[in-house]
Design a protein that fits this description.
Blueprint lengths: L11 E7 L2 H5 L4 H10 L3 E2 L3 H8 L7 E2 L2 E7 L3 H7 L2 H5 L2 H4 L18 H24 L7 E2 L1 H19 L4 H23 L3 E5 L6 E7 L1 H29 L2 H15 L4 E2 H7 L6 H13 L3 E6 L8 E6 L3 H9 L8
Parallel strand pairs: 1-4, 5-7
Antiparallel strand pairs: 2-3, 6-7, 8-10, 9-10
């Protein structure tokens, strides 16, 4: 990053691309380093060969000043689950990334080739890049990107209210949701820049005209939809990894919380396995349920299936069991209450 830096810029930009993210995350130093790069903090490289070059007067790039890193990683869920550590989930790196899972739309025997589409994309990119250079040269385009009033209102009120409940929880969900608003602003800035949404305004301090890219309402809404989709995928992926590394007490509390959320409907045995993303053996699950039953926190009952089939086991919150028993005795169904 530092060796390719442009000394005329106040920041050092860089691009990191890797086709297998699990290889990066195998390194114990990767989470802390990537967090530093994401936050834009100056990074001092204390390598012996750099210090030797400095002592010889060669002036090597020891410090990476104000890095701005764009990174794209790819991996499979199985590969990531094998290497992900608690430090990555709890130390902040997981919430700094936007996680997206590819959905299979159409299965084909060979990769699809779209040369015309690629050529069109390159032409648009060339035109956009030329227009941006023209704005920088002829209109003194500012480096900062602003938000108009509707987009600011959407970010500070609409999106905040949508995420507020998740932010208040003491879990990985809170750390991921707290990053959602900054992620949305950054993605919206990319959208605004891609369509060159340029505003010219007068500097209130100097009175001089200045031109800068401004995020509009359509940019912020589009970005929010993208980030919320990523938020959902992050919770699925992080939930699996978190459960795999969870202690017995954490699993017990997680199961009790899920049982209470279901109310009178209760949890089927299949649903109980789903709480732990199947990172729990039958014996471990039986032990967890037995401990909760011994503490009078849950009740496990055999329920009629309703179609003359075999009765099924369901797990209920002990606080609502009396209501559930009364409904069953009256011939009702708890799953429709």
């Amino acid at each position: 990053v530092s060796e390719r830096a442009d000394k005329n810029l106040p920041v050092i930009p860089g691009v990191l691309y890797h086709s297998e993210a699990s290889k990066i995350f195998l390194s114990e130093e990767a989470p802390a380093t990537l967090c530093q790069l994401y936050d834009g903090e100056d990074i001092e490289r204390n390598y012996r060969y750099l210090q030797r070059d400095k002592d010889e007067g060669k002036n090597p790039p020891i410090v990476i000043k104000a890095p701005q890193l764009s990174a794209v990683f790819m991996t499979t869920q199985a590969a990531l689950e094998r290497v992900i550590q608690r430090e990555m989930l709890e130390g902040g790196l997981f919430s700094r990334l936007l996680w997206l899972r590819e959905e299979l739309r159409e299965l084909m025997p060979f990769p699809k080739s779209d040369k015309v589409g690629r050529e069109g994309l390159l032409h648009r990119w060339t035109a956009w890049s030329g227009a941006l250079d023209g704005l920088r040269a002829g209109h003194d385009l500012q480096l900062d990107i602003g938000l108009d009033e509707p987009s600011m209102f959407f970010l500070a009120h609409t999106l905040f209210e949508r995420l507020k409940g998740s932010m208040e929880r003491e879990s990985m969900e809170a750390s991921v949701s707290l990053r959602a608003m900054p992620h949305t602003a950054r993605v919206a800035a990319v959208y605004a820049a891609s369509r060159l949404n340029v505003h010219t305004e007068r500097n209130p301090e100097t009175g001089a005209l200045r031109t800068r890219i401004v995020i509009g309402e359509e940019d912020i809404i589009r970005a929010a939809n993208f980030v919320l989709r990523s938020f959902e995928k992050a919770m699925q992926l992080g939930g699996r990894a978190q459960v795999e590394h969870a202690t017995v007490e954490t699993k017990r509390q997680l199961l009790l919380k899920r049982v209470k959320e279901t109310g009178r409907a209760g949890l089927s045995r299949r649903d109980v396995y789903g709480v732990f993303y199947r990172h729990c053996t039958k014996r471990q699950l039986d032990d967890l349920i037995a401990e909760l039953e011994d503490a009078d926190l849950v009740v496990q009952a055999s329920m009629p299936s309703g179609n003359r089939g075999r009765p099924s086991l369901r797990l209920f919150d002990a606080d609502v069991w009396e209501d559930v028993a009364a409904i069953i005795k009256a011939g009702g169904s708890t799953t429709t209450q």
